[in-house]
Design brief:
The protein has four helices and six strands, in the order ααββββββαα. It has 148 residues and is α+β, with helices and mostly antiparallel strands. The strands form two sheets. Strands 1-4-5-6 form a four-stranded antiparallel beta sheet, with no helix packed on it. Strands 2-3 form a two-stranded antiparallel ribbon. The longest helix is centred in the N-terminal third of the chain and has 27 residues. The chain is elongated and about 75 Å long.
Length: 148
């Protein structure tokens, strides 16, 4: 039991020494706020390449670039303790929920009836939707992908 604890203490001290050595190494490097480093890091030509985390091909469109988001909601939709039904046909499951650019939320039933849902907002949509898996050029293409 004592040997195990001594080994653990020795390993901890070695890790502390390695951390102290790394901190000492970084303390000797020049700070990035030095004027000489900032001038060297900024390219002098206006045609310089702008560095970014992701290349343009891998970037997802922002909310301003798309008309809205949509997701399937197969189970009954309960809002404030009430099961939401389609006002036209009475359907209460298999919804497509749209979150549009103006932060409004719309419901669409299987029979293609659409109604604006005032009890839901963008925050609710973001909490309950997963990440976007596809980008569709048209509404019909998106509905076909979701099975409607």
């Amino acid at each position: 039991m004592f040997r195990r604890r001594a080994r653990a203490d020795r390993a901890f001290r070695e890790a502390q020494r390695a951390g102290q050595a790394m901190l000492a190494m970084y303390a000797q490097q020049p700070r990035p706020t030095d004027p000489g480093l900032v001038a060297a890091a900024v390219p002098a030509t206006p045609d310089a390449v702008e560095f970014d985390f992701l290349p343009p091909d891998f970037r997802a469109p922002s909310r301003k670039d798309v008309e809205g988001f949509m997701m399937r909601w197969d189970s009954p939709l309960v809002i404030d303790g009430e099961v939401r039904q389609c006002p036209a046909c009475g359907a209460y499951r298999n919804w497509i929920i749209f979150n549009l650019r103006d932060d409004s939320v719309w419901l669409r039933c299987r029979a293609d009836h659409e109604t604006k849902e005032t009890g839901l907002d963008t925050a609710w949509y973001n909490r309950n939707s997963g990440p976007a898996d596809r980008w569709h050029p048209t509404l019909e293409d998106g509905l076909r992908h979701l099975g409607h």
